[in-house]
Every structure is written in structure tokens, then in C-alpha cells.
Write a structure and sequence with these properties.
With about 170 residues, the chain is of the alpha+beta class. The chain has three helices and eleven strands, in the order βαββββαββαββββ.
């Protein structure tokens, strides 16, 4: 698989003098290690909806799962635009905000790989089976979505800086 290299810049208005752009690999690491990710979606009437969930970073994208009847899944039916936010531990690191479009993953082979990733990243209590294009566990089924980054912001605390990574055509 080809690694996508984003266009990177630092916004000097939001950082300490002389702060430089953080490397994309640092943002990827924060996404890979995230314990909790906050997802923001938009309800059909335009109101925001934000909730925490678990994600896995694989193949250049964040993946999340949700029940088909949950609010975020219903929101995605009418507007697939999402924002995913990861915060680093207090006192250091990089807070990361990913803007993108949620696309359903329904291929059972891909889902089996993602199910293994969920268990590897989050432990055996997050073990899923795969059936009929979804995750299945004792509590029911869950749809799986992939969010490839369009624009990502990284907020560093020391030194304070804001880096932007943009993907796709210039």
C-alpha cells in the first residue's frame, strides 16, 4: 500500500514564536494510540451530535463502529461528514482533529481484519465476529465505518503550535 504524504503547514497565529509544523507521523501515532475518540456528526435538523467511541487506525484511515439504530448511524445516513477528535494525555503530546467523510465498510474480509485490529488495540472484551457485512457480538450488530482524513489539525502544547495536514488535490 502506498503511504499518502499530506501537505503540511503551521499556523503561526496559534503558536509560540518560532514553532514549526509537527511531523505527520506524530499525528498518526496519536491516532493509533487513542484510547477514546470523540465523533461529531450532524443531525438531519442541523444540530450537532458528539459522543465518545473506540477507533482503530489502519490503512491510512480511522475506523469506528456503531449500532445501525444509534443516533450517529442515523445522522450518517443524511450527512456522512464527520469530525473525529483525539486528545493526548495532559501536559504533553498532540491533540488531533480529523475531518473527513464516513464510508461504510461491508466487505467481510476487510471486516475480519478490522475485528482483529479492534481486539489487538482494545483488548479481548472488544472481540467481534463478522457476518453479513457487519460486526456481531453478544449485544447485537454494529456497522463499521472508515474515515480517510481530508484535513487534520494537530494542536501541540510544548511548544504551542497548530499544524494542518491536507490530503488530496491541491
Amino acid at each position: 500500500m502506498t503511504t499518502i504524504v499530506p501537505r503540511t503547514d503551521v499556523d503561526v497565529r496559534y503558536g509560540e514564536p518560532g514553532a514549526t509544523a509537527r511531523p505527520w507521523e506524530e499525528a498518526e501515532d496519536a491516532l493509533r494510540r487513542a484510547q477514546i475518540t470523540w465523533i461529531s456528526t450532524v443531525r438531519p435538523d442541523g444540530r450537532p451530535h458528539v459522543t465518545p467511541l473506540l477507533t482503530v487506525w489502519r490503512d491510512g484511515a480511522l475506523h469506528f463502529c456503531t449500532g445501525a439504530h444509534e443516533r450517529k448511524a442515523r445522522n450518517l445516513e443524511t450527512n456522512p461528514a464527520v469530525v473525529l477528535t483525539v486528545s493526548s494525555p495532559a501536559g504533553g503530546g498532540l491533540d488531533v482533529v480529523v475531518e473527513g467523510v464516513a464510508e461504510r465498510v461491508a466487505d467481510d474480509d476487510r471486516l475480519r481484519g478490522l475485528a482483529a485490529a479492534w481486539e489487538a488495540d482494545h483488548g479481548p472484551e472488544w472481540r467481534f465476529e463478522v457476518a453479513d457485512g457487519a460486526f456481531v457480538d453478544p449485544y447485537g450488530g454494529a456497522l463499521v465505518f472508515r474515515v480517510a482524513p481530508v484535513t487534520v489539525f494537530g494542536f501541540a502544547r510544548s511548544p504551542a503550535s497548530q499544524t494542518r495536514w491536507r490530503f488530496g488535490p491541491a
